[in-house]
Specification:
Blueprint (H helix, E strand, L loop, with lengths): L23 E6 L6 H15 L3 E5 L7 H10 L4 H25 L3 E5 L2 H10 L4 H7 L8 E6 L2 H11 L17 H23 L2 E4 L4 H19 L4 H21 L33
Parallel strand pairs: 1-3, 1-4, 2-3, 4-5
Helix pairs in contact: 1-8, 2-3, 4-7, 6-7
């Protein structure tokens, strides 16, 4: 990251160093049922094939808080303030334990939803925008936010066709109506309107979510590839090529001089095993049997 680039939305994370973050943080946003998770999965596979190390994270997936949040949602008893604080705790745990270490190690981090989800959901439920942004002020500013944009009239039939609309996706806690479908339509319309406003404010890259999944993925890949090239992100293959001279220069120098590795005149031969196998170019490759 450059020195002039804003790193945090607010006060930052005081107990975690963010110096020398070599990786890239890419977030994919969009409302419920828009197809984010499938796009993140496809993008991850494609990046790994290109040779990048990739870590995926998502909303409410921290080991510390995920079960607590699920139990709280099942009870339908907590207010928006409490939920916002639970989400912030979950996010802080993932940021400290997953996101920042991965970025420090040069990985591409793909986030299925980011703090913008908390911003949108909280504001449509009546939270003060400045307050919710301050709560998440410790969050890193992503390198890129891809926004899958859709309208409510197109979204609702898609959700109903593929799965049930749950209590929270329908905004039933907001008492918009007793009919689940009508409540969902009103809630998603408000949520999409807030996402559109956030897109203008924070410079999201909007992608038409009414396209086919293949067309959406192609647009995402072009944008991501451009970012990684601009950041000069190294693939794992590139990293190994950089390390290779350091790992093998002694053996190659001995061979060029006509000596057995590890000795002047071919006495006791000491063979060292390199720490990195140059044939393995991705973290997902299994070790040799």
């Amino acid at each position: 990251m450059t020195a002039t680039r804003k790193r945090f939305f607010g006060h930052g994370l005081p107990y975690a160093s963010v110096e020398d973050l070599k990786g890239a943080l890419i977030t994919i946003e969009g409302t419920d049922g828009v197809g984010r998770s499938n796009q993140v999965s496809s993008l991850k596979q494609w990046l790994e094939v290109q040779g990048y190390g990739v870590i995926e994270t998502g909303w409410t997936r921290s080991e510390l808080m995920s079960e607590t949040i699920m139990a709280a949602k099942a009870g339908h008893s907590l207010n928006q303030l409490t939920f916002s604080l639970l989400y912030a705790t979950d996010f802080a745990d993932r940021l400290e334990k997953i996101v920042i270490p991965a970025l420090r190690s040069g990985f591409v981090v793909l986030a299925d939803r980011y703090v913008f989800t908390a911003f949108a959901r909280s504001v449509v439920r009546g939270a003060d925008p400045a307050w919710i942004r301050n709560v998440f002020g410790f969050a890193l500013v992503p390198d890129m936010t891809l926004y899958l944009k859709i309208d409510a009239d197109t979204l609702l039939p898609r959700i109903l066709q593929n799965r049930r609309v749950d209590f929270w996706e329908a905004g039933m806690d907001m008492h918009l109506g007793t009919d689940l479908f009508e409540s969902a339509r009103k809630y998603q319309w408000r949520l999409i309107r807030e996402y559109n406003r956030l897109a203008r404010q924070y410079g999201f890259i909007s992608i038409d979510a009414t396209l086919t999944p293949e067309e959406i993925q192609a647009k995402i890949r072009r944008r991501v590839q451009t970012l990684l090239e601009e950041r000069r992100m190294q693939t794992l293959t590139d990293s190994l090529e950089t390390l290779r001279p350091l790992l093998f220069e002694d053996a190659e120098r001995d061979e060029a001089a006509g000596r057995a590795p590890g000795g002047e005149g071919g006495g006791d031969r000491v063979v060292t095993t390199p720490l990195v196998d140059p044939r393995r170019t991705r973290l997902t490759d299994p070790p040799d049997a």
